[in-house]
């Protein structure tokens, strides 16, 4: 893929210079599909080198092939964010291969629709372990490397606007992401003196993602959710990727502890009916 065709396919990316993230090493959890892959695609196009993690090696391989035309150096590591020791290994390998880590995007998430009274303790635990404890694992193990980043380390946590409205049928995910949001704010203060900026990005429903499919479309709720969007349409992965790029770039130097809501105004319509 040439630059010209990349620009034609992704017109919004033209607001950034092509080297906005040049020299950065960015690690994206859950980077092989959906929003994570969308962030990776934008970052690669803006000059970053990437480490992508996910549970399935085949999907990671596919993602790396898809991103190859960008010319980015891409390391894929199959790993489950719930495993602290494995996470330590991911960070060690990142530093061994690239010499450092500048941007950490905690994107890996689990979710399914289930009435609270029917949710098993294990179902609750699975989602909290992926979303909240997985974010702990990566923030905790990445600290030293992020502190050493010459650009000022960045953590971008993918959270949810539903932490304030509640989310009937997904109380596990809303609760876990509320924890992520609080962790973000706590670390923004604790690690500010180390130059590490820590922010939340709060996506709304994004076209073509597993979240939209399983939470709404597969349940025949796609149209209803669409009617809850202030802008009247779902987002694209580029909408999230470009917001993350802004925070990861020098444009985000003075931003820490913020909630960047990128949801087409979905949160304003708090209705669930
Ligand atoms: C009820 C369910 C269930 C369902 C799983 N469980 N799916 N309960 N309804 N649909 C229960 C299982 O019965 C089990 O409990 C427990 O959850 C763990 O399930 P496993 O399949 O063994 O776990 P695991 O393989 O670790 O998978 C984790 C997972 C899975 C979260 C359950 O769905 C997953 O891997 N998801 C990753 C992809 C994903 O969810 N993407 C969407 C993210 S969307 P018992 O008691 O039976 O052992 C998002 C934001 C969306 O985050 C925003 C939309 C606008």
UniProtKB/TrEMBL annotation:
One of its GO terms (biological process) is fatty acid catabolic process. The lineage of its organism: Bacteria, Pseudomonadati, Pseudomonadota, Alphaproteobacteria, Acetobacterales. Belongs to the short-chain dehydrogenases/reductases (SDR) family. Residues 24-208 form the Ketoreductase domain. Transmembrane segments: none annotated. It comes from the Bacteria. The keyword DNA damage does not apply. This is SDR family oxidoreductase. GO terms for molecular function: 2,4-dienoyl-CoA reductase (NADPH) activity. InterPro entries: DECR2-like (IPR045017), KR_dom (IPR057326), NAD(P)-bd_dom_sf (IPR036291), SDR_fam (IPR002347). The keyword Electron transport does not apply. Keywords: NADP, Oxidoreductase. It holds the Pfam family adh_short_C2.
């Amino acid at each position: 893929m040439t630059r010209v065709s990349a620009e034609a396919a992704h017109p919004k990316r033209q607001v950034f210079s092509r080297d906005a993230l040049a020299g950065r090493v960015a690690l994206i959890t859950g980077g092989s599909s959906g929003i994570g892959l969308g962030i990776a695609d934008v970052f690669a196009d803006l000059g970053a080198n990437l480490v992508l993690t996910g549970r399935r090696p085949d999907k990671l391989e596919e993602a790396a092939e898809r991103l190859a035309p960008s010319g980015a150096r891409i390391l894929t590591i199959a790993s489950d964010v719930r495993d602290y020791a494995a996470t330590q290994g991911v960070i060690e390998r990142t530093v061994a291969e690239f010499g450092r880590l500048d941007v950490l995007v905690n994107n890996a998430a689990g979710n399914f629709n289930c009435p609270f009274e029917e949710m098993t303790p294990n179902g609750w635990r699975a989602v909290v372990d992926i979303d909240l404890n997985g974010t702990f694992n990566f923030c905790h193990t990445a600290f030293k490397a992020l502190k050493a980043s010459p650009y000022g380390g960045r953590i971008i946590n993918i959270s949810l606007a539903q932490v304030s409205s509640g989310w009937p049928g997904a109380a596990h995910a809303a609760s876990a992401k509320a924890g992520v949001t609080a962790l973000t704010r706590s670390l923004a203060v604790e690690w500010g003196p180390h130059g590490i900026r820590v922010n939340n990005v709060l996506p709304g429903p994004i076209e073509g993602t597993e979240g939209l499919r399983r939470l709404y479309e597969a349940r025949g709720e796609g149209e209803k959710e669409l009617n809850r969007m202030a802008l009247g349409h779902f987002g694209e992965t580029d909408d999230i990727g470009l917001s993350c790029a802004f925070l990861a770039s020098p444009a985000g130097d003075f931003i820490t502890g913020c909630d960047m809501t990128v949801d087409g105004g979905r949160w304003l319509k708090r209705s669930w009916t």
